[in-house]
């Protein structure tokens, strides 16, 4: 069976399943979704300054009653806050909103040209101060990772990118695997738009699982961390039931064959 956690290069274990809260409305919608996810067994919550719901994530983590060490919290530095001093200020704002003792993972949300290296220096400083346990990046392609590798004192432990059967980013995943960078898959369910694809339906029927479950399981088989977003209690539970079955080699090959290099969100390929 696939482990429910993955060890990062710094030795810290990160849960393989996380709840994404992008577009979850500020207030009770986010708070209740996080509490429902924790009740369903999730121990990883992924938010960002840009999402506007850090306060609600922090409130739910506190309200859960679980020890702080049992819930892995990620947030991110937005584009307009990049640069050394701006990044330090932005983290202070996020930290005050979350109201938790530390942040488990802080990511540079996008590779903003001319500012991303200064932003990384700020993350390194915060990491050394112990306010952040792990630092990483999001939406970085190989050229961005190579640039960072050449100057970083602390190498990124994580790269969070859009990955699903129709956008597999094989080259980026291979680079990360060779450089001990854990890859997190956001929008793993294609925002629900293509779960009715005949191949996905066929694999789901053969596995006796939902389309969402087989896609998430396929990503786990690729040694990724998955971050499905939902505010629906039933889907939150459904998406968590991915550790108690396996896909056949044939099923994995069929899903591998769906790649179209097609992004559904903003696409960082070609960013300088």
Quick synopsis:
The chain is α/β, with parallel strands linked by helices. It has helices spanning 28-39, 54-63, 84-98, 116-128, 142-151, 170-178, 198-207, 211-221, 233-240, 249-256; strands at residues 5-7, 13-15, 19-20, 44-46, 72-77, 103-108, 132-138, 158-162, 182-186, 225-227.
Which features does this protein show?
272 residues; alpha/beta; TIM Barrel; 8-stranded parallel beta sheet; two-stranded antiparallel ribbon; 10 strands; 39% helix; 16% strand
SSE arrangement:
Layout: E1 5-7, E2 13-15, E3 19-20, H1 28-39, E4 44-46, H2 54-63, E5 72-77, H3 84-98, E6 103-108, H4 116-128, E7 132-138, H5 142-151, E8 158-162, H6 170-178, E9 182-186, H7 198-207, H8 211-221, E10 225-227, H9 233-240, H10 249-256
Parallel strand pairs: 3-4, 4-5, 5-6, 6-7, 7-8, 8-9, 9-10
Antiparallel strand pairs: 1-2
Helix pairs in contact: 1-2, 2-3, 3-4, 7-8
